Amino acid sequence: MLTGNREFNEIYKKYKNLVLKAAYIYSGDNYDAAEDITQDTFLKLYIRFDELKGGNVSAWLFTTAKHAALNYKEKHSREVLSIDSDEPPEEPRRESVEEEYSEDALERDRAKLHDRIFKELLEKNPRWYEAVYLAYYMEIPQERVAEMMGMRLGALHTLLSRARKWIKKTYGVEYEEMNRQD
């Protein structure tokens, strides 16, 4: 089981906000669910602490919270919402069905491209992926990211620069084309 409560408590203090933020983002911006997912994630860590403490605990925490949040979101997206009143909910006004479809399609395409970028970035260089994800997607201050990754801030800046260059070279044209205004 657990060999050092102090060590676990330090990890909890260091990463609780990262886990909560990941759970919040991936659960569909549901704060209550994110809190529950965070609690469950640290409970799993507590139970498996001795076998995990030699590895990359921050990556394990993030991945565990992410998967739990995605599972939560998928499960709850299937639920049918009931409306207490007899009046139908007010929907945002759009100029046309075509415009709404076009906007939705563009958002889906962007999401697919972002997912593909992150997947291929992970395959290309896991350190780039971790740095980009923590610094840009999770919006953790770069000083903290460097600390989490066990590197100097200058080394993190170099890592991020190389990752951005690779992303721009690999996906720049596709991204620009997608966001072009006709």
TrEMBL record:
<keyword id="KW-0804">Transcription</keyword>
<dbReference type="InterPro" id="IPR013325">
    <property type="entry name" value="RNA_pol_sigma_r2"/>
</dbReference>
<dbReference type="InterPro" id="IPR007627">
    <property type="entry name" value="RNA_pol_sigma70_r2"/>
</dbReference>
<dbReference type="InterPro" id="IPR013324">
    <property type="entry name" value="RNA_pol_sigma_r3/r4-like"/>
</dbReference>
<dbReference type="GO" id="GO:0016987">
    <property type="term" value="F:sigma factor activity"/>
</dbReference>
<dbReference type="InterPro" id="IPR039425">
    <property type="entry name" value="RNA_pol_sigma-70-like"/>
</dbReference>
<feature type="domain" description="RNA polymerase sigma-70 region 2">
    <location>
        <begin position="11"/>
        <end position="78"/>
    </location>
</feature>
<dbReference type="InterPro" id="IPR014284">
    <property type="entry name" value="RNA_pol_sigma-70_dom"/>
</dbReference>
<feature type="region of interest" description="Disordered">
    <location>
        <begin position="80"/>
        <end position="102"/>
    </location>
</feature>
<dbReference type="GO" id="GO:0003677">
    <property type="term" value="F:DNA binding"/>
</dbReference>
<dbReference type="Pfam" id="PF04542">
    <property type="entry name" value="Sigma70_r2"/>
</dbReference>
<keyword id="KW-0731">Sigma factor</keyword>
<comment type="similarity">
    <text>Belongs to the sigma-70 factor family. ECF subfamily.</text>
</comment>
<keyword id="KW-0805">Transcription regulation</keyword>
<protein>
    <submittedName>
        <fullName>Sigma-70 family RNA polymerase sigma factor</fullName>
    </submittedName>
</protein>
<keyword id="KW-0238">DNA-binding</keyword>
<dbReference type="InterPro" id="IPR036388">
    <property type="entry name" value="WH-like_DNA-bd_sf"/>
</dbReference>
<dbReference type="GO" id="GO:0006352">
    <property type="term" value="P:DNA-templated transcription initiation"/>
</dbReference>
